[in-house]
Amino acid sequence: MIVLGMESSCDETSAAVIRFEGGRREILSNIVASQIEIHRLYGGVVPEIASRAHIEAVSGITYRALEEAGVTLSDVGCVAVTSHPGLIGALLVGVNFAKSLAFSHGIPLVAVNHVKAHVAAAYLEEPTLEPPFLALVISGGHTSFYRVDSYTDFCEIGGTRDDAAGEAFDKIGRVIGMPYPAGAAMDKLAYEGNPSAVKLPSPALVGETLDFSFSGLKTSALNYINGQRQKGIEPSHEDLTASYTKVIVDAIVKKTDAALRQTGAKTLVLAGGVAANSHIRHGLEVLCEKHGVRFCKPSLSLCSDNAAMVAAAGYFEYLDGNFADTSLNASALD
Q1: How far apart are CA 203 and CA 189, in angstroms?
Q2: Residue 19 counted as domain residue
Q3: Do the domain assignments include residue 291?
Q4: Distances from the Cα of 186 to the Cα of 172, 183, 302, angstroms
Q5: Would you tell me how many other CB atoms lie within 10 Å of the CB of residue 149?
Q6: Is 95 in the same domain as 137?
Q7: CA 154 to CA 148: how far, in whole Å?
Q8: Domain membership flag for residue 220
Q9: How far apart are CA 248 and CA 173, in angstroms?
């Protein structure tokens, strides 16, 4: 079966073609049109600009994905599109294009939850992976644990109560002069500093909860930066980044340890844009080795928003018969 996936939840317009045949899942194409250079001028994503850029890109990349895959719309058995959560204007571009494409060609349409799509990226590289398992999604908008009971049934068992890890990295990175998005640059710079140089509060909430709160950590880091600058001192970016990264990694590892113990899960799937962070990947790898837990992490190209992961999630929605019709709408919420 051939699935055409479409993604436009934030600042990447993406289309992908995936072949599902037996137990094989083959990525035939995965085209991503990034808007990073556009939004870098503003230090973050501007929703209206993102929506307009999606409109300009969506048709071209869709037909490019089909061409690169060597298929036509008559070969496509299902169109899968991200319908929620995300920026509402950006989502509407993908949803309306996918609806028009699917129904004008008589192709079944399925709506995909963006978080489930991130987790489904693991199925493309781990053919033996199957639920149940524990998933940890870390991105600009999510830092959440999910008990994955089946390919389409998720239960959130913990998450952030305010900001997410990705937003926390970007905010402090911007303050110390790193270009947007700051995550990759902070990942690299953290290796050059002293992780014990700056004392910062843990975003892991105290108690039995599996929740996080990153707002206090951001405030503490900002106060430290401003306090040093008021003294005429520019804080060491290396030491601050190393300390900031360490406290985030330690918190994530601590709560993941608790989540594994509470659920008894034998497999951990890491997903989301911040899953590309090498410090987080290493910390969780060590934790999983300690517990004898299988650790599945996507390659870097499948961590960020892309349509291949949407197609993977959409395939299982299709198998469950969760079809969408022309009333399908986008939603900014989970």
Answers
A1: 21
A2: yes
A3: yes
A4: 9, 5, 20
A5: 12
A6: no
A7: 5
A8: yes
A9: 14
Beta carbons within 10 angstroms of residue 81's beta carbon: 31
Q: Please answer whether residues 80 and 1 qualify as being in contact, where contact means their C-beta atoms are separated by less than 8 angstroms.
A: no
Domain co-membership, 112 together with 229: no
CA-to-CA distance for 184 and 166, rounded, in angstroms?
10
Indicate the residue type of 136: L
Tell me: do 254 and 167 sit in the same domain.
yes
Only one residue has tokens 């999606």, namely: 54
pLDDT in tens, 144-196: 999 999 999 999 999 999 999 999 999 999 999 999 999 999 999 999 999 99
Global pTM value: 0.96
Clarify whether residues 174 and 262 are in a common domain.
yes
Q: How far apart are CA 89 and CA 232, in angstroms?
A: 43
Separation of CA 3 from chain center: 21
Q: Do residues 221 and 291 share a domain?
A: yes
Task: Report the CATH number at residue 186.
Answer: 3.30.420.40
- Domain-located, residue 267: yes
Residue 152 token pair: 């389409």
Where does the pLDDT of residue 22 fall: very low under 50, low under 70, confident under 90, or very high at 90 and above?
confident
Encode pLDDT of 36-63 as tens digits. Answer: 999 999 989 999 999 999 999 999 999 9
